[in-house]
Amino acid sequence: MVEEVSNKQVIFKGYINGYPKESDMILKTSTIKLKVPEGCSDAVLVKNLYLSCDPYMRSRMTKTDHNYVPIFTPAQPMSGEGVGKVVDSSHPDFRKGDLVAGITEWEEYSLIKSTAFIRKIDEQAGVPLSYHLGILGMPGLTAYVGFYEISSPKEGETVFVSAASGAVGQLVGQFAKLSGCYVVGSAGTKHKVDLLKTKFGFDDAFNYKEEADLDAALKRHFRGGIDIYFDNVGGKMLDAVLPNMNFNGRIATCGMISQYNLTEAEGVTNLFYIMAKQIRMQGFLCYYYRHLYPKLFDLVVPLLKQGNIAYVEDVAQGLETAPAALLGLFSGRNVGKQLVRLASV
Amino acid sequence: MVEEVSNKQVIFKGYINGYPKESDMILKTSTIKLKVPEGCSDAVLVKNLYLSCDPYMRSRMTKTDHNYVPIFTPAQPMSGEGVGKVVDSSHPDFRKGDLVAGITEWEEYSLIKSTAFIRKIDEQAGVPLSYHLGILGMPGLTAYVGFYEISSPKEGETVFVSAASGAVGQLVGQFAKLSGCYVVGSAGTKHKVDLLKTKFGFDDAFNYKEEADLDAALKRHFRGGIDIYFDNVGGKMLDAVLPNMNFNGRIATCGMISQYNLTEAEGVTNLFYIMAKQIRMQGFLCYYYRHLYPKLFDLVVPLLKQGNIAYVEDVAQGLETAPAALLGLFSGRNVGKQLVRLASV
Q1: Between chains, do B281 and A274 touch, taking CB under 8 Å as contact?
Q2: How distant is the Cα of A15 from the closest Cα of chain B, in angstroms?
Q3: Same domain, A121 and A190
Q4: Residues A166 and A44 both lie in one domain
Q5: What pLDDT, on a 0 to 100 scale, did the predictor assign at position A341?
Q6: pLDDT one-digit tens code per residue, B200-236
Q7: CB distance B285–A275 less than 8 Å?
Q8: Does residue B318 share a domain with residue B225?
Q9: Distance CA A103, CA B306 (A)
Q10: Element (H, E) at B291
């Protein structure tokens, strides 16, 4: 007799435009059998312990002709990265009790029908489980790729990071310091600005919401110009950065969170500088750099063990808080990597 | 006794905004002694034979905080690339009668006080003199660098070129065909579109002025998307191209002629695709790739001798036509590389 249990879920209501609202997601309780069904040969059934809230998820909530990640299915649970514990498995590489990270659904228990996008967590590494959704997960890989692979950093160069206290930005700043760069970050509250300077070791930081003139703010912080811009926001900040870039500068286009909820994107007017300053502006998606996870681990795990790298998380408690936690990303309510904790190991 | 002769000049009146007018340049006749003055040890005095009209010259007519080439000096002659014959020289490498190409002034005779930016023309190459301002000059180098060094072309890829019949574009299209690419160009008249297809071997071409919907025009010509965009124009065309780029596409940002005469640049709204499609958008200035002139010559001179590459010039006659010839670039009046012929060898 297979045990059937209650399973709270966060259901995606339907496609939206503009800012998402909590009511675009619905809490529901269904039931689930704690066993991989017959006929599923590459599946695991997991108890979800942590879920990850990430800005890219916004693009999964709108149906367009340019979705770059699969869109959500209306009336089905939201999905995203998570950490879980295997309850049952039909794949020989995964056993009951294993801890895994990867694509799961927003519910207490998930049947993951393909193991292609989950990875086993090495508990020997001795890092907090949630870090596999942050510094050792997609945000960590994103920071690693965008800084080391895309930005061609050199010692002594100047680096600007927007959304700098976020899941990715806080790591970019620390990588920049490790590379001997001068790094300044922008964020949206005094608390975040303080964190950048005291916790993450940025050389300086500013609150972009308090700057009437972003160009002037950048000129104040970069008298000698910007060599590398790690762009998490796009829009007005990108437009202000372009004239402040140095000759042969690089822009790593990681995200454009300032634009995701606009029905019409803001126009960027300063692209002239791409030519005039020989700038290289390059987009990247960490999905296509998954082969670099081992390099990320080789870099970061020793730093974590030595206490030489910090990672700040913002952990909401309980599945029912997940919709608000996701929405908080777009108003900047989160401080650091936004997670939702569902259960203990 | 040094011969003193009359010297017609085109004088830059003063800094402007918006579209340049003929009256921003003044014809004047002064006199000049046909001898390098005492004390000038690195100078040549040349009789100018051809002058080059290039879009970048527009940016020399406005004083901003972002000039990427030296601005013109009011009340002094316009300057730019030219071909001339040495009348007198104080530098051992240049002798009377030598033909040279490089930075000169818009006048019949010029005293060039430094030979740093002029190069001796090898008459043995057997190509028309004017080609040293086009296919073998700055436009040729620009096309070479932007295509081979910046765009990473691969056989079978699709290439889109804007301002495709211009001094640079016509070569990019031919380089793309030599590399086994599929290439489409845009231009602003039926005559130019015909030239692209019949003279330069583009696979297809369209008149952007007759397309109400640039996105639709691009979709019609690139059903499988665009791998490489060689951007000479910026603005609305760039915005339309971005959603039509393929994953891992490259944009060589060569120029933004659609924007040079606007007091406020058009906003580009589709930069989201830079991230979502992992696009690399890279600016370049041929000045910083001068060391590649020999590679350009090695590629192009044999092709010219075999008749396997075409180059179309638009030659205005007489110094007094130079202002109108320059202005024609911004209304698309020129067909091919715009030159002004002053005198015969």
Answers
A1: yes
A2: 19
A3: no
A4: no
A5: 98
A6: 999 999 999 999 999 999 999 999 999 999 999 999 9
A7: yes
A8: no
A9: 59
A10: none
Domain that holds residue A185: 141-287
**Closest residue of chain B to A59, computed from CA coordinates:** B276
For A275, which of B243, B256, B274 is closest by C-beta distance? B256
What CATH number did the domain enclosing B60 receive?
Answer: 3.90.180.10
pLDDT at A264: 86
ipTM for this prediction: 0.94
- Top residue of B145, B246, B253 to mutate, by most chain A CBs within 10 Å, is B253
Say whether residue B264 is in contact with chain A using an 8 A CB cutoff: yes
User: Over the stretch B162-190, which tens digit does the pLDDT of each residue have?
Assistant: 999 999 999 999 999 999 999 999 999 99
**Parallel, antiparallel, or unpaired for β B337-341 and B313-317?**
parallel
pLDDT for the residue A172? 98
Interface of B with A in 284-343 (CB under 8 A): 284-285, 288
C-beta separation of B129 from B49 below 8 A: yes
How far CA A196 is from CA of A77, A166, A200, B32, in Å, comes to 35, 10, 5, 64
How many structural domains comprise chain B?
A: 2
**CATH code for the domain of B230:** 3.40.50.720
Show which of residues 61-80 on chain A sit within 8 Å of chain B, judged by CB atoms. 65-66, 68
- Does the distance separating the beta carbons of A267 and B267 come in below 8 Å? yes
The pLDDT of residue B294 is: 94
Does a structural domain hold residue B153? yes
Grouping H, G, I as helix, E, B as strand and the rest as coil, residue B87 is strand
**Is B305 domain-assigned?**
no
Nearest to A296 by CA among A82, A123, A148, A169: A148
Mean pLDDT of B41-48: 96
Q: Are residues B23 and B161 in the same domain?
A: no
Nearest Cβ partner for B271 among A66, A264, A268: A268
Q: Cα B273 from chain centroid? A: 29
Q: What is the mean pLDDT of chain B?
A: 96
Nearest 5°: the CA angle B129, B135, B140 is 135
**A231 and A262 co-located in one domain:** yes
Q: Verify that B110 and B192 share a domain, yes or no.
A: no
Residues of B in contact with A242 (CB under 8 A): none
* Amino acid identity at A187: A
Q: Is A128 on the interface with B (CB under 8 A)?
A: no
Q: Which two tokens stand for residue A274?
A: 């791409």
Amino acid present at B235: G
**What is the mean pLDDT of each successive set of 10 residues along chain A, which is 345 residues long?**
92 95 97 95 97 95 86 97 98 96 97 94 88 97 98 98 98 98 98 98 98 98 98 97 98 93 91 97 96 96 96 97 96 96 92
CA distance B315 to chain A (A): 28
* Nearest C-alpha in A relative to B150: A280
Residue A319 resides in a domain = yes
Rg of chain A (C-alpha set): 21
Cα–Cα distance measured from residue A151 to residue A160, given in angstroms and rounded to the nearest whole number:
11
| Distance separating the N- and C-terminal Cα atoms of chain A | 25
Write out pLDDT tens, residues B47-86. Answer: 999 999 999 999 999 998 778 889 999 999 999 999 999 9
Q: Is the pLDDT assigned to residue B111 strictly greater than 80?
A: yes
pTM of the entire predicted model: 0.95
For testing contact with chain B, the best of A247, A275, A280, A290 (most B CBs within 10 A): A275
Shared domain for A275 and A195, answered yes or no, is: yes
B303 occurs within a structural domain: no
B119 and B46 assigned to the same domain: yes
The DSSP code for B77 is B
Find chain B residues with C-beta within 8 A of A259's C-beta. 272
Q: Which residues of B touch A225 (CB under 8 A)?
A: none
pLDDT score recorded for residue A263 = 84
CA distance B143 to B135: 9
Q: What is the pLDDT of residue A261?
A: 87
